[in-house]
Write a structure and sequence with these properties.
- By secondary structure, the protein is mainly beta.
- It has one helix at 75-82; strands at 5-7, 10-12, 16-33, 37-43, 46-52, 60-66, 70-71, 94-103, 108-115, 118-133, 139-150, 172-183.
- Strands 3-5-6-8-9-10-11-12 form an 8-stranded antiparallel barrel.
- Strand 5 (46-52) and strand 6 (60-66) form a beta hairpin.
- The protein is elongated and about 55 Å long.
- The chain starts with a strand and ends with a strand.
Length: 185
């Protein structure tokens, strides 16, 4: 097994080019319904490349998300999420994230998230979970990341007012990412 590097009291994966294993990657989101209950969804179509530099802060991330793969556990809701009220997957089948800064000391990645043709900056807090040799001879690195966005910043503003005040669907959405990367030769 290739050893994890330790940099400034933080572990970091081995340098090089890594690709996302789509079978072990999930971009999830959590919103509030009626301002109370949590509704979770995820995108299973995730593809991308991470380049880990000798200087971790010179690393980069480029991810493409297939918005058609949204799944929340309810077919009617998923169809609504795919409609032009939300993700408009017919005109915008993919979303992208491209990093602009990696801050090892803060454990953050800042990048541009593009949804429905609108690009806005997003900051994700990242946790490096380690790396391992898999049974097929590949080196894998595992990461989790979280962040919070206002969906209206991307023009995703469909909602219904509630008689008691408030909105049916929260504007604030928590993004939760789990990903395994495979190091390229």
């Amino acid at each position: 097994m290739n050893a994890t590097r330790t940099l400034e009291r933080s572990d970091a994966p081995t340098t090089g080019t890594w690709v996302i294993d789509p079978g072990h990657a999930e971009v999830g989101f959590v919103g509030r319904h009626f301002g109370l209950s949590k509704i979770r969804g995820r995108f299973t179509g995730v593809d991308g490349t991470v380049i880990i530099g000798d200087d971790v802060e010179r690393s980069s991330v480029a991810v493409t998300i297939d918005m058609r793969t949204v799944s929340s556990g309810d077919q009617d809701r998923d169809d609504h999420l795919r409609s032009d009220d939300f993700f408009d997957v017919e005109r915008h089948p993919t979303a992208t994230f491209t990093s602009t800064a990696v801050r090892a000391s803060e454990r953050t990645i800042t990048g541009n998230l593009t949804i429905k043709g609108v690009t806005r900056p997003v900051v994700l807090t990242v946790e490096y979970l380690g790396q391992v040799d898999d049974p097929w001879g590949n080196l894998r690195a595992l990461f989790s990341a979280v962040g919070t966005v206002n969906r209206e910043d991307w023009g995703i503003s469909w909602n219904l007012p509630l008689a008691t005040g408030g909105l049916l669907v929260s504007k604030e959405i928590r993004v939760e990412i789990e990903v395994e990367l495979v190091r390229q030769p």
